[in-house]
From TrEMBL:
<dbReference type="InterPro" id="IPR003673">
    <property type="entry name" value="CoA-Trfase_fam_III"/>
</dbReference>
<dbReference type="InterPro" id="IPR050483">
    <property type="entry name" value="CoA-transferase_III_domain"/>
</dbReference>
<dbReference type="InterPro" id="IPR044855">
    <property type="entry name" value="CoA-Trfase_III_dom3_sf"/>
</dbReference>
<dbReference type="Pfam" id="PF02515">
    <property type="entry name" value="CoA_transf_3"/>
</dbReference>
<protein>
    <submittedName>
        <fullName>CaiB/BaiF CoA-transferase family protein</fullName>
    </submittedName>
</protein>
<dbReference type="InterPro" id="IPR023606">
    <property type="entry name" value="CoA-Trfase_III_dom_1_sf"/>
</dbReference>
<keyword id="KW-0808">Transferase</keyword>
Length: 404
C-alpha cells in the first residue's frame, strides 16, 4: 500500500456514482477500499451500458464504462445484507475499518442493523458517511433522489442552456460527482477529528444540499441583488467578454479576466479603439453593455483562424482555447503529459488492459498510485474474508448459503 491514506480501511456500501466517486478518490490516495456488492449482481452501474469492456472473445463483459469511471483501487466482496449472516458479517468487518460509507435510502440500513448506531456499537470511533438525495432530515428526506433531480431542484438547470431554450442539465452527473467530492472532504475532516480526540462521528450528506452549495457566484448574485439569474448560454454572468465566438474555421473560447487583458485582446483583434470605447473601459461597463459588445465581436473574430486566436492570445496572456470533442481531449498533448489517461491491466479483456481517466492530484511526496483496476463482482471475496480472520470453514459455509 502507498499514498497519504495508506493504512486506512474503508467499508464501501455505496453504488451508482456519488458514493463510488468519493471512495475511489480515497482509494487513489492509498486507502484500502472494500466494495460490498450484491452476490451475482453487483453495483447497478455494471449494467449501465453500452459501452462495455470486451471480453477476450469479443463479447460484452460485465464492466460498463459507467462502472469503470468510479471504481478503481477497490476490492469487491459480495455479501447478501438481507440475510442475518450477511448482516453479522458486515458488522464484523466494520469492527476493523475506519470508515463506513453508504448511500441507501433514509433508514434503509437500520432494518438490517447496519446503520450508524449499530456500527458504533462494534466500532465506537467509526466515521460513518451517509449520502442521500435530500439528507436525513426535512420534508423531502424519505424521497428517492437522483443527480437529475438535484440539478433541477437545486437551480443548476435554470442557469444552464441557451437563453431562449429549455432548462438543460450538465452533460455528466455533476451533482453526484460534487457530492462525492464533499463526502471525501468530510470523511477526511472526521478522521482528523478522530485522530485527535478518539471520537468518531456521523456524516449526513445530501445531493440537493451540495448542489446548492456549488451555485457559488450565481447563488450569491441572487442573494446579493435579489435578482433571479437566468440562462446565458456560454456567456458569464459577471465577466465580459467570456464566451464562445466564431473564427474563420470554427469557434473558440475567449475568457477575458481583467481590463488589461481586454485591451490586449482588442489590439490583437486589430481594433485597439474598442479597448478605449467608454462603454467597455471596465468589466462592470462591459457587463452592463454586453449586448453591444457581443454584436461587434463576431465580425472581428472571424478574421483569424482558431490556431491564430489560441496561439496568439496565449502569447499575450489572454485566456482562450478550443472547444474540444472528447476524442480531442484525450489526444491533447497537455492532457497526456499530465497523466489524465491511464491504462491498467484487466485480465480477460480483449486487450488485456482497460483505459481510465487519471486522478488530477499531483503530490510531491506521496503520488497517487493506480494499484487496482475496477474489480469484477466478488473478485476479492475470499482474499478479504481471510484478511479479516475468517477460517476456510467459515468462508465455505457462507458460500454454501449464498451469503457471499
Amino acid at each position: 500500500m502507498s499514498g497519504p491514506l495508506s493504512g486506512l480501511r474503508i467499508l464501501d456500501l455505496t453504488r451508482i456514482l456519488a458514493g463510488p466517486t468519493s471512495t475511489q478518490l480515497l482509494g487513489d490516495l492509498g486507502a484500502d477500499v472494500i466494495k460490498i456488492e450484491r452476490p451475482g449482481e453487483g453495483d447497478d452501474t455494471r449494467r449501465w451500458g453500452p459501452p462495455y469492456v470486451k471480453n477476450a472473445d469479443g463479447s460484452d463483459s460485465d464492466a460498463s464504462a459507467y462502472y469503470l469511471s468510479s471504481n478503481r483501487n477497490k476490492r469487491s466482496l459480495t455479501v447478501d445484507i438481507a440475510a442475518p449472516e450477511g448482516q453479522a458479517l458486515i458488522r464484523r468487518l466494520a469492527a476493523s475499518c475506519d470508515v463506513v460509507a453508504e448511500n441507501f435510502k433514509v433508514g434503509g440500513l437500520a432494518k438490517f442493523g447496519l446503520d450508524y448506531l449499530s456500527m458504533k456499537e462494534v466500532k465506537p470511533d467509526i466515521v460513518y458517511c451517509s449520502i442521500t438525495g435530500f439528507g436525513q432530515t426535512g420534508p423531502y428526506a424519505p424521497r428517492a433522489g437522483y443527480d437529475y433531480l438535484a440539478q433541477g431542484m437545486g437551480g443548476m438547470m435554470s442557469i444552464t442552456g441557451e437563453p431562449d431554450g429549455q432548462p438543460m442539465k450538465v452533460g455528466v452527473g455533476i451533482a453526484d460527482v460534487m457530492c462525492g467530492m464533499y463526502a471525501s472532504v468530510a470523511i477526511l475532516a472526521a478522521l482528523r477529528h478522530r485522530d485527535r480526540t478518539g471520537q468518531g462521528q456521523y456524516i449526513d450528506l445530501a445531493l440537493l444540499d451540495t448542489q446548492v452549495a456549488w451555485l457559488v457566484n450565481e447563488g450569491l448574485n441572487y442573494l446579493t441583488s435579489g435578482k433571479v439569474p437566468h440562462r446565458r448560454g456560454t456567456e458569464h454572468a459577471n465577466i465580459v467578454p467570456y464566451n464562445v465566438l466564431p473564427c474563420a474555421d470554427g469557434h473558440f473560447i475567449i475568457a477575458v479576466g481583467n481590463d488589461r487583458q481586454f485591451q490586449r485582446f482588442c489590439a490583437f483583434a486589430g481594433a485597439p479603439e474598442l479597448g478605449e470605447d467608454p462603454r467597455f473601459l471596465t468589466n462592470s461597463l462591459r457587463v452592463a453593455n454586453r449586448d453591444a459588445l457581443y454584436d461587434l465581436l463576431p465580425e472581428l473574430t472571424r478574421r483569424k483562424t482558431l490556431d491564430e486566436w489560441v496561439n496568439g492570445l496565449a502569447e499575450l496572456g489572454v485566456p482562450s482555447g478550443p472547444v474540444n470533442t472528447i476524442d480531442r481531449v484525450f489526444a491533447d498533448p497537455q492532457i497526456l503529459h499530465r497523466g489524465m489517461k491511464v491504462s491498467l491491466p484487466f485480465p480477460g479483456s480483449e486487450t488485456g488492459t482497460v483505459d481510465l481517466i487519471g486522478n488530477p492530484i499531483k503530490f510531491s511526496e506521496t503520488p497517487v498510485a493506480y494499484r487496482r483496476p475496477p474489480p469484477r463482482v466478488g473478485e476479492h471475496s475470499e482474499e478479504v474474508l481471510r484478511e479479516f480472520g475468517l477460517s476456510e470453514d467459515e468462508i465455505a459455509k457462507l458460500r454454501d448459503k449464498g451469503i457471499v
